[in-house]
Every structure is written in C-alpha cells, then in structure tokens.
Amino acid sequence: MIYRIMNKIFIVCGPTATGKTKLALELAKKFNGELVSADSRQVYKGLDALTGKDRSEDIPIRLYDVVDVGQEFSVAHFVRLAQIAIGDIYKRVRLPIIVGGTGFYLQALTTSIDTLTVPPNWELRKTLSSMPIEELQQRLQKVNQDRWDGMNDSDRKNSRRLIRAIEVALFTKQRSPSGRQYDALWIGLTAPQAVLKERIARRISERFGKAVTEARKGLPPILGSDPLLLYKAGKITKQEAVDKWLQAEYQYAKRQRLWFRKQKEIHWFDVQHTDYHRDVEELVREWYTKP
C-alpha cells in the first residue's frame, strides 16, 4: 500500500550489530521505501567487510561508497548528499528510510541548524589553532558533549574538524533551533551488553577473512584496520587481532548507546524480543498513515 509521503522520513538507529539495516530493508518492502545510510564509515569505497555494509539486490541503499579512501568527508557532505537522496526518493513517491549509527549525522540532518551556514570565526580559529589536540578535545566536550559523543575516532583526532565543531557549537549555542525539517519517526534498536558483544563477535568472525584483504596502510582510522594490519605483518595472532577488533567495536557501541540514549524522540526496541519486528511495523504504520 502506498501512503501519502508528505515530509516524512523514518529513522532506524542504535549501536552497531543490532540489525538496523536488516530491519530497515524489511520495512522498506512493506512501506515502499528506500534506504539512505547514515554511517560515517560506510561512505568509503571498497571497505565492505571492515565497515559492515549489508547490501540488497531489491532495495537501493544510498550513501554507500561515495568517496575514495583518503578523500575528505564530513557531516556537511553527508547532509548535502542525504538531502539530495531524500528529495529523489520523494519524487518517486517512496518513503526515505535513514539507517545508521552515526548520531551526529542524524542530528544534523533532522535539525534546522545547518552547519554549512555557520560563518567562520577567524579570531576564534586563530586562538584554537595554537592549542594541542587534547585541549581541543576537552574544549569541545565542555561546549557540546553531544557533538563530541557523536564524532568518530578520525574526527576526534583531527584538529581542524575539532576547531570547526567548537566553532559551530559556540555559534549555535546562541541560537534556538526553529524546529525540524522533516516529520521524522525515530526507531532505536538495542540489546543488553552481553548480547551486543556476542553479536559483534559473530559479525567479526563472519567478516574476518574479507576484512583482512581490505586492510592496508593509509586507511582512515576504521575500527579493526590496525589489528588486521598487525596480523597481516605476522606481529600478532589471528585470535589477538579478533580480540582487539572486538574490543574496539564494543567500545564504539557503548559510545553509541550513550549518545542515542540522550535523544528523547527515539522509540526503543530490544532485538531480543521475538515480536519486536511486528511492534515496530505497527508503530510505523500508525505514524505513516497520519495525514
């Protein structure tokens, strides 16, 4: 059944390994939807196993493989490309389903504050540019903890991006958001810590062989790439590489949980519950059919 699209987007978020893409693909078939990835790692070409891309022959997934390794990609790039993708999906009377675990990408897409329009503060930049990376990190956490929590490891170690994040945070702190761009329904998937760690371990085991072939020098700080390079060089065992990768992914998942738990608009579902797919579908249908 095709409903009136209006300005609706459906968001599936939560920590890694909770089955976000699988659920989104199922719902896309039921609600005539297409997916837009909101994952800061999956934008890179050729890193399917390292970044956990789930593909579909039936449903398009936008914003996979949009930049080469080494090419710059920021939240501003994401918002611009996501808005283009959403507009194209609307034109074909389909429902945009945004799926991913990069919280700040989702926040930037759905709030009215557009970081692209925040002007540069040259005096502030001059002051911040003399600070060591550790002090920039502390400064950002002080002015906007949510922005810090939503950054990936690469951005947290990039002084230029930290300075821009502080600049935007200080600018927007003086202004109140004027509302949402979209009528967005947020669905969050979660699981107890032990279950989440088990699911992450299973995914790593399934992806390990292909991920080894993808790991190489010069990659952005993708989780798993460093231990895999050590393994390829014969410096650690396979089990040691798996354990290090698992620990990195699990720590990332904990940060994701912390960030998403602060977002009050999210409807949470535990993936352990047998009927959670049905419950999500009922909620989406109720929201989707409202004029």
Helix fraction, binned, reads: 40-55%
Q: Describe the global form.
A: globular
Query: What's the gyration radius in Å?
Result: 19 Å
Strand order of the largest sheet: 3-2-4-1-5-6
What's the rounded overall pLDDT mean? 89
Order of helices and strands: EHEHEHEHHHHHHEHHHEH
Largest sheet: 6 strands, parallel
Q: Give the strand content.
A: 5-15%
The first-to-last residue Cα distance is 15 Å
Description of the molecule:
- By secondary structure, this protein is an alpha/beta fold.
- Among the domains are: 119-179; 194-253, Helix Hairpins.
- The protein is built from 13 helices and 6 strands.
- It has helices at 20-30, 48-51, 75-91, 103-110, 122-129, 133-143, 145-149, 153-156, 159-173, 193-214, 225-232, 238-261, 276-288; strands at residues 8-13, 33-37, 61-62, 95-99, 183-190, 266-270.
- A 6-stranded parallel β-sheet has the order 3-2-4-1-5-6, sandwiched between helices.
- Helix 2 (48-51) links the parallel strand 2 and strand 3 (61-62).
- The longest helix is centred in the last third of the chain and has 24 residues, at 238-261.
- It starts with 7 loop residues before the first strand and ends with a helix.
- Mean pLDDT is 89; it is low at 176-180.
Looking at this protein, list some descriptive labels.
alpha/beta, Helix Hairpins, 291 residues, six-stranded parallel beta sheet
